[in-house]
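Bench notes, afternoon.
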Amino acid sequence: MRQLGARTSDVFQGLGSALTTPATPGAPLLAEASSRWVRLLPYVVALAFVAALLPSTVVLLIGDYGVNGALAGALGTAQTLPLLLAVARPLQAWWIVFVADVLGALVLLGAEGGRADYWPWPPTVLVGYCVLMVALGLRESRRALFGVWLATGVAGYVLEAFRPAGYTSIHTLLLVLSGVLLLLTSAVRARGDAQRRLVEQETISEAERARRTLLEERARIARELHDVVAHHMSVITVQADSAPYRIPELPEAAREEFTSIAASARESLAEMRRLLSVLRSDGSEGERAPQPGLDRVQQLVEATVRAGVPAELRLAADLGDVPQAVDLSAYRIVQEALANVVRHAPGASTRVSVRADDGWLTVLVVNGPATEPGSAVERGAAGTGHGLVGMRERVRLTGGSLDTGPLPDGGFRVAARLPLAPDPAPPADPA
C-alpha cells in the first residue's frame, strides 16, 4: 500500500512538473516553415479567434448571464486574449485561460442570471478552450497533455456540484472534445517528430557512409602505394649493401655509413609491412601483379570499347620521367572515369587524352550524353575505387588538382593535373 502511494505521488509530481515546464519554450508554431506567410499563419488564426470571441464573450456574459459590464470585459479578455500567447507558449496560455474560466464560473454563481442555459462554461469559452487544446497538443509532451485534460475534468466535475437550477451542464462535452483534440494533435506532432528524426538519422547515415567510403579509398590507395614505396626502399637497401663491394676503395667510415643506411631501409620496409597488415586487417589478400601505369591505358580503352562505349585515346609519345605514384594515380583516374561512363552514360562517345607539359601530367576524359538505356550499368570496364572520391584522394595525394563537372550537351568532363616535378610551373587549362 505504501509503494502504491509512493508511485501515485510520483505520477502526480511528474504531471505537475510537465505542466509547469513547457516544451521548447519561445518557439512559435510553424516557426521552421520556409515561407514567411506560413510562419505568420498561427498568429493570424489566433488573432481571428480573439477578434471573434472577445466581444461575443463580453456580450454573452452581460446579456445572458447578467454579469457586470466591467467584470465581463475583464473575464472576456482573460479568457480569449491568451490565445495569442498560445502560438509560442501554449502551456502558460492554458494556465491563464484555465484560471480565468474557473473564476468566471464562480462569478456566474453570484450573477443575476437571465437567459443563460449552460454551466459551468459559456459556449464561447468552450470554443476558445478547444482552440487552445489544438495549440497544446501540437507542442507539449503527452504527460503535460494528460495533466491538462485531467485538470479540465476535475474542475468541471467540482463546479458541477454547484450548478444553479435551470442550467444545462456541458462540462462533459468539453471534457470529451478536449480529449479528442489533444489526442489527434499529439498524434500529428508525434508523426512529425518521427519524420524529423528519420531525416536526421538518414543525414547522419549518409555522412557516415561518405566518411567510410573516404577511409576505405584512402586505405586502398595506401595499399597500392606500398608497392611503389617498397620498391624504392628495396633499391636503397641493395645499393647500400652492395656499395662496399662495388667501390673497394671506400673508407671504413663510409662502409659503416652504408651499413647503417641499409639497416634503416630494412627497418623501414618491416614497418611498412606491419602497416600494410593493419590496412588489410579484413583478411583480404594483396595483389600479386605489379601496379599498373600509363603503359596500360591503351588496354583500358580497348576494354571500354568492347563494353559498348566508343572511346579513343590520345597518349603523348614522350611523357618524360613520370614518378611511379603519379603513373599509378593517372592510370586509376582514367580507369575510374571510364568505369563511370559505362555505369552512367552507356554508349556515349568518350575521348581520353594524356599529355605532359611544363612539369605537369594532364589527364582528360570527356564523354558525351548517354545513347543507350542505363540497364547495362555494371557490365564492361569496372573501376576499383569509389569514383570521384578516389580521384580526388589520388590527386590530393600527389599534390595536383581535379576539375570535374557536367557539360552543356549532357556529357561529363574529368580533368586531372598531376605534378611531374616537386615545383612545376602553374598548369594551363586543359582543352
